[in-house]
Amino acid sequence: MKIISVVGARPQFVKLAPIHKAALAAGVEHVIVHTGQHYDPMLSDVFFEDLGIGAPDVHLGVGSGSHGVQTGAMLAALDAVFDEHRPDWVLVYGDTNSTVAAALSAVKMHIPVAHLEAGLRSFNRRMPEEHNRVMTDHAADLLLAPTQVAVDHLGDEGLAERTVLVGDVMTDVLFKVRDEVGARPSPLLAELGLEPGGYYVATIHRAENTDNPARLEEVVSALSGLDKPVVLLAHPRVVAKAAAHGISLTQGSLAAHQSLAYADLIAAALSSAGVVTDSGGLQKEAFLLRVPCTTVRTETEWVETVQLGWNVLANTAEEISASVTRPRPTETVEAPYGDGQAATRVIRELIRVASDRNLA
Ligand code: UD1
User: Which residues of the chain have pLDDT under 50?
Assistant: First the structure.
C-alpha cells in the first residue's frame, strides 16, 4: 500500500513524525510531500531532523502569499505529484492551507483522501482554519478524529459513516519527547538566567491577534505587564507584523526569543509557571504536561482542556492577567487525547479501509 502525506506547516511536521514511524513499521510505502508553506529552517527543517523523519520526498517550494495565491499554487503543483504516484491514500493533516489544497486536488483526481485531526471545530467563521477544516472534512473519504467531541461534530454534520476515533497523534510525540527531556533542564533557563517555575512561555501568531495593530498592542501590553518574565517564542508572522506596526516585542516582563526546536519547546514549557498561547497544539501540550495554560482566543477546538480546568480562554488584557496568575488547577487523570498510540491506529485503519475497497 502507498500513502502520500502532504504537509506544509510546523504543527503538521510534528503530527507527521509518529505517522511516518508507524507507516514504516507496517511496511507501508510512505511518500512525504512538503508544500513549502513554512520554509524558515526553525519552522521546518529542524522538525524533520529532530523528529527523525528524514527529508521530504517532494518539495513544492510554494512559500508565503495571500490565502488564494498560496492555496492555488499548491493545487496547481499537487495534481502532477498525485498523478505520478497514484497512491492508495492521500493523507492530509489538521487545518492549514496545505490541508485543503491537498484534499481538493486528490478528490478531484478520484484518489481517496483521509483527514487526520478531523472534526475539530471552533465555530468561528472568521478563522481561515475553520473553513479549511470544514471543507476538508466534507471532501475526505475517511475522517480520523482525535477526540469524542470531534466524532460528535462530524456526526452532527452527517459524516458519521466516514468517521473513526483514533486518538490524537500529537500525544504520541509529546509523551515520547517529554520522557526524553524530562530529566534535562531546558537550555532556555541557562541562556536567559531563568529559574524553574519563575517564568512564562508565550506564543502568539494567529491573524486575529497579530494583523490589527490595536489588537497586537493589547496582547503585548498584557504580556509585558505580567508578574514574571515572559519568553515570547516568536513566529515569523508576529515578528513581521510587530515590525510593520511599530510595536516592540521586548518590553516590561516580555522578551522576544526565536522559535525553538520541538524538544526545546517542550522542555521550556515543562519547567515554566504557565503557558500563554493562541496555538492549537500548545494548549493541548500544556494540558498533557500539566502546565496551566491561558489561551488568547475567544474559543478553542480543544474544549476538554478548558472543561478540566487546565486551560482558560482569555481575550482582554485583564482576563489574560487574571488567568495567568490563577491558582494551580486540580489534578486530573482524565485522558481525552488518547493513550499515545494513535498513529498505529491511523495506519491500521488506512490499511483496513483500502483492503475493503479493493475487495468490493
Ligand atoms: C499557518 C496555519 C495555522 C497554523 C500555523 C502554524 C493557515 C491558514 N494557517 O499559519 O493554522 O497554526 O501555520 O505555525 O494555513 N512566514 C515566514 N516564514 C515561514 C512561514 C511564514 O516568514 O517559514 C511568515 C510570512 O510573513 C507569512 C506569514 O508568516 O506571510 C504567515 O505564514 P502562513 O504560512 O501564511 O501562515 P501561518 O501564520 O504560519
Answer: none
Encode pLDDT of 138-185 as tens digits: 999 999 999 999 999 999 999 999 999 999 999 999 999 999 998 788
CA of 45 to the centre of ligand 1 (A): 15
- SS3 of residue 191 by DSSP: helix
Would you state the pLDDT for residue 157? 98
- Of 3.40.50.2000, 1.10.10.10, 3.40.50.300, 2.30.30.240, the CATH number of 176-324 is 3.40.50.2000
pLDDT recorded at residue 183: 73
Determine the Cα–Cα distance for residues 175 and 284; give it in Å rounded to an integer. Answer: 12
CB within 8 Å of 240: residues ≥ 6 apart: none
pLDDT value, residue 184: 81
pLDDT at 115: 99
C-alpha cell at 107: 478528490
Ligand 1 binding pocket, CB closer than 6 Å: 9-11, 37-40, 43, 64, 95-97, 128-129, 205, 235-237, 240
Atom of ligand 1 nearest to the CA of 281: 12
171 sits in which H/E element: helix 169-181
pTM above 0.90, yes or no: yes
275 within 8 A of 305, measured Cβ to Cβ = no
Bridge partners of residue 31, in order along the sequence: 4
Please report the atom of ligand 1 found closest to the CA of residue 11.
6
Report how far residue 242's alpha carbon sits from residue 220's, in angstroms, rounded to the nearest whole number: 10
CATH 3.40.50.2000 domain position(s) in the chain = 2-168+338-359, 176-324
CATH number belonging to domain 2-168+338-359: 3.40.50.2000
Scan for cell 459513516, then name that residue: 161
274-277/293-295 β-pairing: parallel
Nearest C-alpha neighbor of 77 from the set 104, 54, 96:
104
* C-alpha–C-alpha distance, residues 100 and 19, integer Å: 19
Residue nearest to ligand 1 atom 34, measured at CA: 37
For the chain, the farthest-separated pair of C-alpha atoms sits apart, in whole angstroms, at 65
